[in-house]
Amino acid sequence: MTDLAPAQNTAAFLRSPRSRFEVGPAEMPEPEADEVVVRVRAVAINPLDWVVQGTAQLTYRWLAYPAVLGTDVAGEVIAIGSAVTRLAVGDRVVGLATGTDKGRDSRHEGAFQTHTALLERLTAVIPADLSFEQAAVLPLGVSTAACALFQERHLGLRLPRLTTTTGDTPSDAAGDAVSDAAGPGLSAGGAAPVEREVVVVWGGSSSVGMNAVQLATAAGYDVLSTASATNAETVKGLGATHVYDYRDPEVIDKLVAVIDGRTVAGVVAIGAGSTDAGIRLLARTGGTRLAIASTPVSLAEVADVSSGRRLLPTALPTFARLGLATARSALAARQAGVTARFIWGSSLRDDDLGERLWGEVLPRGLADGSLRAVPEAVLAGDGLDALQAAVDRHRAGVSAQKIVVRL
């Protein structure tokens, strides 16, 4: 272990299920061989945070208390483990904390504390001109999008290709040589085919959606998307060639028309109604792969810990609707010949996608500007005491933005 400076740690603890955050002293994490310890400068809020806070008795039953939640971290490396080779003390980084996952330790690896441990393979150096607050929006959104697009169990697409600084033949993120050397950073690689495969991102203005649009574009696919009229230009700015209003009753007809018989590599479904819409679209275009990022029924009301209501009586009707909707969608997918699977955004920790995304694609893309830290960061406050209000604000709803707290 190499240290920058001794320090004391403080965390926002969840002392018991459905409690509110309580700030207090915490044990300073020591890095395992493949970890770094980061002085956290900014964290971002995800739906996962209020889902775990309010429903962990049903959805995260393995979680030990007191717990430290949070996944999205940006800060400075202050210590490194013995096997760390890519990162160094003093690096400005962004990373995905997976402490609430089964088999992990949230107090060691949760984001909502002033110092946390991150796996090197889920951490990337950020450019000097990228603020911690804006960088913090990336981790879970970009990881979930990458799992949807590139894991074989989902769409199984090729990754963006990496170009070299020397003009040598570049390689893709899997290490395979490609034919075009376009300078440092990311490239779709090779001459564009006459008819490129299509990826549809339903819910393109969400955090996962924005990252899916820009990653699929960087990988050389034609990206179609849906969003509100207010956010359509933002999604187009990330690479989508066409963006349609998801509330338009003719939206599927319009997507089918612009696809015009081309191969649909798959659909990434984010938001209410997206799963069923994706199945219908794939059934009409011959596609077979659907990656699902959202539950069919919102858990926002159930997860509201300010109500003082007990979880089980509140959750039963919602989870009954969720189960029924899931079963109906599964039947529809089977009948349409569609493989539909839910995305677990931190699963890239356990395969080679984590290192390829965080060690290669993301740092190169951020450095050369071909990838952006999206969505827009909205500062909700400073310090751990601001976290509960930030989580409550996120649960109430945000669009094309991500709520960030500065530490």
From TrEMBL:
Pfam families noted in UniProt: ADH_N (PF08240)
Name this protein carries in UniProt: Formyltetrahydrofolate deformylase
Keyword Amino-acid biosynthesis: no
InterPro entries, per database record: ADH-like_N, ER, GroES-like_sf, NAD(P)-bd_dom_sf, Trans-enoyl_RdTase-like
Keywords noted in UniProt: Hydrolase
Chain ranges of the Enoyl reductase (ER) domain: 16-405
Gene3D superfamilies tied to this protein: Medium-chain alcohol dehydrogenases, catalytic domain, NAD(P)-binding Rossmann-like Domain
Keyword DNA-binding on entry: no
EC number from the UniProt entry: 3.5.1.10
Domain of life (superkingdom): Bacteria
A Gene Ontology molecular function term of the record: formyltetrahydrofolate deformylase activity
PANTHER family with a match to the protein in the record: HYPOTHETICAL OXIDOREDUCTASE (EUROFUNG) (PTHR45348), ZINC-TYPE ALCOHOL DEHYDROGENASE-LIKE PROTEIN C2E1P3.01 (PTHR45348:SF2)
